[in-house]
Protein: LacI family DNA-binding transcriptional regulator
Amino acid sequence: MSSSRATLMQVAERAGVSLASTSRALHGTGASQAMVDRVRAAAAELGYSPDAIGRSLRMKRTFQIAFAVADIGNPVYVEMLTAIHEVLAPHGYRVVVMSTGPTVGTTVDLVRSLGSGFVDGLIVSPLRTDDALVEAIRQAPVPVVVIGRSLEKQGIDSVSTDSAAGLGQAVAHLVEIGRRRIGFVNGPLDTTPGAARQRGFDAATSAPAFAGEHAETERADDFTVTAGLAAARRLLSRTPAAGPFDAVVAANDLLAIGVIRAAGELGLTVPGALAVTGMDDTEIGKVFQPSLTSVSLGSADRGRAAAQLVLDRVGDVVEPAQQIAIGPHLVVRESTTTPRADAVAGPPASKEKSAR
Amino acid sequence: MSSSRATLMQVAERAGVSLASTSRALHGTGASQAMVDRVRAAAAELGYSPDAIGRSLRMKRTFQIAFAVADIGNPVYVEMLTAIHEVLAPHGYRVVVMSTGPTVGTTVDLVRSLGSGFVDGLIVSPLRTDDALVEAIRQAPVPVVVIGRSLEKQGIDSVSTDSAAGLGQAVAHLVEIGRRRIGFVNGPLDTTPGAARQRGFDAATSAPAFAGEHAETERADDFTVTAGLAAARRLLSRTPAAGPFDAVVAANDLLAIGVIRAAGELGLTVPGALAVTGMDDTEIGKVFQPSLTSVSLGSADRGRAAAQLVLDRVGDVVEPAQQIAIGPHLVVRESTTTPRADAVAGPPASKEKSAR
DNA sequence: GTGAAAGCGCTAACAC
DNA sequence: GTGTTAGCGCTTTCAC
Structure:
């Protein structure tokens, strides 16, 4: 921490030219070479660096974008954040991380707080959505891009994925490898992902292709390992008339890990006695033992797309609301296939295989 | 995105009072109740919300703190970020996430960029440090807190931990459970953590208590699972004259997971044939199978401490540079103890046990 | 190509 | 307790 910073005014005085010329010289907009040299020299001598706040006030742009999620600890959001940062930083934008809290109410508050104009745009991935939130986003004074549910009809930019279809891919894969009695460990139904995935599971297991087999859902309190462990214990303690479960579909990778731990407690081998699939295709799932078959929802892609979208909006591209969809795809790994001892590789993007 | 936002001036006109009174009324500083009511009503009618930029320019405070790390995907940094956010948000501070890049040079650039005054302070955890960086931090126009190496002598606020001692705890634990031939999988030596951990391992294994046993280091290219897997393959393919390795100390949890995967490839059971310890006590280590014995370096605590420190500094607390140390402690889990089938619990903070 | 001046939205002296 | 006014640092008309 040293002496107070130099202002443009001081640079101007030092160079012996006007404030306006100094500004122009530093931006290279319509100034003679002599002027540019002179001003640059003065700026260097003073260690001048332009003040972001003064500039923001004048230009009405902060060069900041907010990214808001319920829980920044969740690996999916971390992947999104990384991707968003990678897209925005080269354009000179900073990323402000915010927390929505678990409820819609606090998310609405957050969107309203955009009124203080500290960012040029917002990327938000709400766990739950209602009319008040939709309305708040519509009224927001800066562009908002939603990652999650498609909100195109509501006139809101959104980046979505078809997690219901993704769940279908997981079920189809399990049926294909001969599993017949499939349990589903889902998270809370009142969340956007929870609801979509339940729809996907119900649709997949009531399709003709699934006839004659057994399907059953158990709901975890949260999308975490701990909640998944508890839910799986409940699920696996029941034995359907059709026979014991031979597969479990989990609504995300963390729940899937909980399921595998529960299987271990009960002496069930994975995938031998119980095949398990996750969703989100996280790093942790790739390195877990057994590595996790998982439905990729393209977290990084969704982050990138959202960042690009908000960048377009901030750049005054006035178009109707856009909806970008990232297709889910299944990545098959050890938790649904017999592992070969020598095939235990590191985090491989190579073993991918698209299903359906 | 709707109509342009209302300004304080407009609220003043609407209320039929002066600009200053409006400001005062809204802040509750020396205004009559009647004035407050009147102004509040006008503000509400206009949906006024104060402009953060105008206020920042005037107050010379942005209410933003930057958090900069090389790789925001690393679970340790995510934990720090969460803790930092939790401390700062209640004080009205936003968190700006920045990337230092892997080299010292880009970190120096980042510190210099503080000159544009977009944040009131910085928390940075550099992987590598040199004189130029120390000097840049000293010259920085806003308070900077370093998480990592102690920089008290250089007059810089820092939050550190004794990872060398932590490594000693891991080695002591392995010796205690009867392991005699211990390998060490470290990350790059030219990083601050890499160097410290190597020092710790060398010290622990050259202490009298370790006499007559075998110690050997293998260096991974990076602190990742993939690099750990490759390094462990190299290490375990060698058989010391004293006999095969019966334990591996890894410099962090990600490396440790790579080690366990390598052990699996070679048919070595963990912890039966090979006991493995990690460091950082991450979430992923807790849920891994086998769950990871790990040296906690108090990531969340360090984040909290750094946030508190930067908060004190921006609050004009002028004191000599502070150095806060968070003590490491060993958390024993399955990877160094025989697991009981029914003891495979969820992420437990309960099974902790301090060593030494 | 250069300079003078206005003004972005806000807070804090300073008078009354 | 209230109003008037200056000014934070910058960009951008507008005249010349």
In short: Residues 150 and 160 of chain B are 6 Å apart (CA to CA). Chain B touches chain A through 64 residues (CB under 8 Å).
